[in-house]
């Protein structure tokens, strides 16, 4: 039996993940961490702060807010607990903290837990390498009106994947409002739309001379992210200390 602590257990994704694990005979949630401790009744203890958690588990799965990352990392490092995190909106400092902690514990981090998103990221990377400079690259992401960070972590995941394939020669440009100059061939445009209850939609556009190629992923429900987190947990428990992502798991 794999024991799990969910960080952000009373959030939307935390609730979905709890439901999936409750129906999984190989896993069990033994504790939760959430700043809104009393929002829901849970069949496991919930702590406001990670430092208050008295349980130990095989893995921590984090679907919380980036502001809680330091506390989660401290708990995981102190208890030598592997961490799976899909929290977005991370700063450069947060990323450095994750890399430092990965020298002590196994850490799995991704901007999106969907297997499909990571497949289209790889496809977009390969397309950019083949198409080259004659094709302009634009990324459009759509999410529900309650999402705070913009652009999405997934948009950055895709953009960084493309840029890596192009030897990091591109610059990210956001929105384009009020720009007085023409588009540069070194631009990757990133645009965010917020509205309604859109779960998540990402489109990569390659616009070239007289032809357009689009690669698109649409999330129908958030269940896919919970399933991805469970698979990532199983993968991480087999790994030694280090930093891992979806590419490592898909290989």
Automatic annotation (TrEMBL):
InterPro entries: DapB_C (IPR022663), DapB_N (IPR000846), DapB_N_CS (IPR022664), DHDPR_bac (IPR023940), NAD(P)-bd_dom_sf (IPR036291). Its EC number is 1.17.1.8. Signal peptide: none annotated. NADP(+) binds at residue 39. One of its GO terms (cellular component) is cytosol. Pathway: Amino-acid biosynthesis; L-lysine biosynthesis via DAP pathway; (S)-tetrahydrodipicolinate from L-aspartate: step 4/4. Residues 116-250 form the Dihydrodipicolinate reductase C-terminal domain. GO terms for biological process: diaminopimelate biosynthetic process; lysine biosynthetic process via diaminopimelate. Gene3D superfamilies: Dihydrodipicolinate Reductase, domain 2, NAD(P)-binding Rossmann-like Domain. It comes from the Bacteria. (S)-2,3,4,5-tetrahydrodipicolinate binds at residues 144, 153-154. One of its GO terms (molecular function) is oxidoreductase activity, acting on CH or CH2 groups, NAD or NADP as acceptor. Residues 3-113 form the Dihydrodipicolinate reductase N-terminal domain. NAD(+) binds at residues 8-13, 38, 86-88, 110-113. CDD domains: DHDPR_N (cd02274). The keyword Amino-acid biosynthesis applies. It catalyses: (S)-2,3,4,5-tetrahydrodipicolinate + NAD(+) + H2O = (2S,4S)-4-hydroxy-2,3,4,5-tetrahydrodipicolinate + NADH + H(+); (S)-2,3,4,5-tetrahydrodipicolinate + NADP(+) + H2O = (2S,4S)-4-hydroxy-2,3,4,5-tetrahydrodipicolinate + NADPH + H(+). HAMAP family: DapB. PANTHER family: 4-HYDROXY-TETRAHYDRODIPICOLINATE REDUCTASE (PTHR20836:SF7), DIHYDRODIPICOLINATE REDUCTASE (PTHR20836). Catalyzes the conversion of 4-hydroxy-tetrahydrodipicolinate (HTPA) to tetrahydrodipicolinate. This is 4-hydroxy-tetrahydrodipicolinate reductase. It comes from Marinisporobacter balticus.
